C-alpha cells in the first residue's frame, strides 16, 4: 500500500478522500464488512475536520515515502511567511 501511495500524488489524494476505492485500486481486497467500517470511520472523521466559514483553502499537498521514512515536513515554518506547513485564514 505504501509503495502504491508513493507512486503518485493522485493516489494519496484518492486515499484521503475515498480510502476503500484507493485500497481496491492498490490491489487490496476488503470484505464488505471492512468496506462498511472504513466508510463509517471516514464519515465520522469528515465531520470533525470541517473547515469553518470564511476560511479559504489555497493548497493541500501530500507525500508518502516508499521506505516509510519519517522526518521533517517541507521546509519548516517560516515566521511571517507561507509554506507547505502553514495554515492561513483570510477574511
Please tell me about this protein's structure:
The structure is a single chain. The radius of gyration is 16 Å and the shape is flat. Residues 76-91 have low confidence and may be disordered. The protein has helices spanning 2-7, 9-17, 19-25, 32-48. The protein contains 4 helices and no strands. Helix 2 packs across helix 3 (19-25). It has 91 residues and is mainly alpha-helical.
Report a brief summary of the structure.
The chain contains 4 helices and no strands.
Order of helices and strands: HHHH
Give the beta-strand count.
0
The coarse silhouette is: flat
How much of the sequence lies in strands comes to: under 5%
Low-confidence stretches: 76-91
Give a short account of the largest sheet.
none
Gyration radius over CA:
16 Å
What is the SS-derived class?
mainly alpha
The rounded distance between the terminal residues' Cα atoms is 39 Å
Query: Which range best describes the helical content: under 10%, 10-25%, 25-40%, 40-55%, 55-70% or over 70%?
Result: 40-55%
Number of helix segments?
4
Rounded mean pLDDT score = 76
